[in-house]
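hey so i finally got around to running the thing on that chain from the lab meeting. sorry it took forever, my laptop kept dying and i had to restart like 3 times. anyway pasting the input first so we r on the same page abt which one it is
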Amino acid sequence: MTPRPIRLYHPGPRLLAAALLATLIPSPGAAMDTEIRIDDSAQKALAITIYNEDLALVKDLRALTLAQGENRVAWRGVSVQIRPETALLSETSGKLPVRVLEQNFDFDLLTPQSLLKKYVGRRVQVIRANDAGERTLEDATVLAANDGLVLRFADRIETQVVGHLAYPDVPADLRDQPTLVLHLDAQAAGEGAFELSYLTSGLSWEADYVADLAPGGAVMDLNGWVTLTNASGIPYRKALVQLVAGEVNRVQDRMPPPATRAMVAAAPAEAMPQEETLDQYHLYTLPRPTDIGNNQTKQVALLAAPRVPVVRELVVRGQSYSYRAQSGDGWTKLPVASMLSFANKDGSLGIPLPKGVVRVYSKDSRGNAQFLGEDEIDHTPKGETVKLKLGESFDVTARRKQTSFKKLSGTSAYNYAFEAGFETELKNARAEAVKVKVLEELPGDWTMVKASQPHTKESSSLASWVLEVPAEGAVTLTWLAQVRF
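ok and heres what got predicted. didnt touch it at all, straight out
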């Protein structure tokens, strides 16, 4: 039987996607008439505690009215990367006692492809138009929707279908956004304030610091920023944000860290985050609620410390392996590291510094800020010293060679004794004298037999010298050491 042509409001022929967007969308919740849908409009408060490594605790407070007995509640707008096993619902007012009988996380979202797959084995309608603009409508059964669409009509099977599909309804197990479905048992009817808390991936934070080095390099202005990253799949509006600094032990992640797409830099806040101790960690609370959009990186001010005293050093470091064998390689070039250090103490800073990257700038002769280098710091308690490597010196160079080597005693790897001599040459092409710190790593039980300048024993395996290298000149350091294993 040939289908009777009818006129439809739907525009011209198109495959799959165009039809789905235009013809499906029944009223929300039509498939679950007894379900209570609760979305952001019922939200009374939102708080997020964000940890360093792709983890956050979301606490979402919403008003909810229940009937006495069993209720099915669709809590819409949860994170796409929620860990459903961590979800906890509590009634905070104490007026409406409930029991949670069951909870399900529905993450099969409504898309043209997901809808088509749900209709495999079910009937749809195929709508076509001829050159005259007349529409025809024909019933068909979806046989497959994997690598392509396969439809069974009354008298044939077709692939590569011309036209578009119309669906009678949206399946109950497809959602337009991630939803936690809660099966609750209420002792009485009424309205309550319910807080849903859960852990989620897709939210993280880190600290970023900007240091402005003053002329002369004796002090710097240090500003810290909190960089928040949200790739959890949903935005968070007017949220109270708290940040935990420290390494929280976790079972191996189930989801990879997300990528970000957008960047928003907020203006420095007048009030800085409040810091407090939380068990073995430190907690920072932002001074006001903030919006964190999905796929967004946001920055808010963390600290501002003017005129922090700093120490600048040039450092050369030798390695311990050259004390174990004779070397015939001659001179070896060593990098001369440009170092900056400062004390995290009262009078300059004196607050716990979260792990992050410190970027250092200095103004040139024209007053323009220039980038000097960056380094990452670990979580730094109050009272500790922060050391940063900014780069390597261009004008100050170093080279080192082994000048002597002999075996003193031993027949195995555990009782050898060696004596080795070395020479390090430092050159300075600048117009002023500079000081260079030479660090030498020595293995085993070592003794400095002699040296051209007195050394300092920094640790059980480290000797150091501070040498002044004259302007456009050079200086040579020699030493002889014995090591026993």
